Amino acid sequence: MKKIESFLNSGLYIAIIFGITLVAWSFYKETPPHVFNLYNMVGVFLLILVNTLLLSFFRNTLYTVPVVISFLFIINKSTISFDSVGSMDFPFIAFFVAMMGFLIHFIRFKPQIKRHQFFIGFALIAISYVIPLLYTPFSVSGLTVSLMGALYLGLYLFYSSTIKGNIDYLFKILLLANILLTAEVAIYLYRGYLLNPELDIYHRIYAGWGRNLGWANINDMCFYIALTFPSYLYFIFKRPQTYLIWFLMIFPTAVVILSKSRGGVIGYVIVVLGVIAFFLLRGNKKHLTHGLIFLSITALIAYFTREVFYIWWDFFLDSIGDDLNSFSTGRIDIYKFGLEVFKEHPIFGGGWMSINTYPGGNLFGGRIFMYHSTFIQALAAMGIFGLIALLIHYFQIAKYIFKNPTLEKFLFLIGYLASQAHGLIDNVQYAVPYSILIVLILAIFETAERKTMFESKQLRYHYIE
Q1: Residue 437 contacts residue 297 (beta carbons within 8 Å)
Q2: Which of 31-35, 72-76, 165-169, 188-192 has the lowest mean pLDDT?
Q3: How many CB atoms lie within 10 A of CB 296?
Q4: Is 36 exposed, middle or buried (0-12, 13-18, 19+ CB in 10 A)?
Q5: For the ranges 12-16, 179-183, 215-219, 348-352, which has the lowest average pLDDT?
Q6: At what angle do helices 65-74 and 38-57 cross, to 10 degrees?
Q7: Domain edge (last residue) among 63, 93, 111
């Protein structure tokens, strides 16, 4: 068992889990009579089996975190909706099989569930999700979405009470998750390249095969890449002699640019500026030297591929339109509608299904469609109470980071702020994968025995017990 646990602690194990995720996700065509692709279902059930075994045999649930994250990024059904899910047995069977692992873990290890330092924020958010159910029209889809807050709270309580955190393990997960997401976008771009042979090479790369990747659209991919991007710095600071990490940083940068996501580029620029500032403030001579070499090579690559930037700029100019609403792809009208909903239900909001009354809302085929802004979403769906709950959640995160600041906390903060900036114009904070990621990251951080992994006097970091 110790040998198995040693393997589970390794980066190889995490890479294998994310490798399974990438392969299963990459089979995107449906295979009748299955609504989901057969290979995608096999991948999901394989991960469920791994997760159930880990929960059944190991007290420390840290090893299940890569599997849970894989669940967030593996579904490739681009037209999934409440109607399609309701017509299938597969998601429900998978759900109940997955729950067996948690049940076995509780029976065997009898974990003591305790309230930790982020409990109040998650609890208030969970309450704000469900209160509108008391006075809004009932629907199964509305009930399902409104219970997501309770799911996040439950996951937080479970993992913060059962994880024996490890900061180094967390950043291995974040780095490999960034590589996984980058690979998914690269496959997205490659398929677009294959589908458009009549275009020149640069326009073929930009084409893509559609803006929906199954579990998210291309804009979402960008803020998850931004959130996890600072993990590269962790290993650069920990192993300053390696050049591989520097080289890998080129790929997420390239795919974000080629995604044509304007919001994605905004968030990514913020995370890059944060990374540069971190280097200047915390880097030693070797870090700065390697950074200059990296920037020089990147600038050289950008010069020889400058046509990519010309096309992106033309796309940006074409997207401006006649007014701010068209430039924002209709977001201004959505924001106005959200504020009207807020005025009608100022205290607790109009509920998660209030967006369905938006003119033209039926065009979204029953899938969850939000208000494209964190604060508008909070006010419209959950009212002033929901906004206060969100602000308390933010305050608790800020308090945790700045109370005993470490290099790792600030690296998380850089990615977190970049993704939240993207959330001003997109569905970030309340997206299911994002919320679960934040729950897992915070649970690992606060349960880690060592709050920082840096002992070197040269790097000026010490263990904080």
Answers
A1: no
A2: 31-35
A3: 10
A4: buried
A5: 215-219
A6: 160
A7: 111
Please name the amino acid found at residue 131.
I
Q: What token pair was written down for 359? A: 């003119």
Question: Is the Cβ–Cβ distance between 123 and 149 less than 8 Å?
Answer: no
**118 shares its domain with 155:** yes
Residue 340, CB-side half-sphere exposure with 13 Å CA sphere: 11
Residue 175 and residue 247 in one domain:
yes
Query: Quick one: 366 and 454 in the same domain?
Result: yes
The three-point CA angle 6-7-9 to 5° equals 65
Residue 68 contacts residue 51 (beta carbons within 8 Å) = yes
Is residue 198 exposed (0-12), middle (13-18) or buried (19+ Cβ within 10 Å)? exposed
**175 and 71 within one domain:** no
Average pLDDT, the chain: 86
Contact 381, 352 (CB under 8 A): yes
**Contact of 16 with 24, CB cutoff 8 Å:** no
pTM, rounded to two decimals: 0.90
Q: What is the pLDDT of residues 89-131, one digit of tens each?
A: 556 677 777 788 999 999 999 999 989 999 999 999 999 999 9
Out of 56, 87, 111, pick the residue that ends a domain. Answer: 111
Integer Cα distance of 110 and 105 in angstroms:
7
Same domain? 117 vs 79: no
Q: Are residues 377 and 416 in the same domain?
A: yes
Instruction: Give the integer Cα–Cα distance in Å for 218 and 41.
Output: 22
Same domain (yes/no): 313, 404: yes
Peptide bond into 137 cis (omega under 30): no
Q: Are residues 250 and 332 in the same domain?
A: yes
User: 430 — phi, psi (to 5°)?
Assistant: -100, 10
Residue bearing the bigger pLDDT, 85 or 329? 329
How many structural domains is the chain composed of?
2
Nearest to 218 by CA among 274, 256, 270: 256
- Residue 341 structural domain: 113-465
- Paired tokens of 424: 């001003």
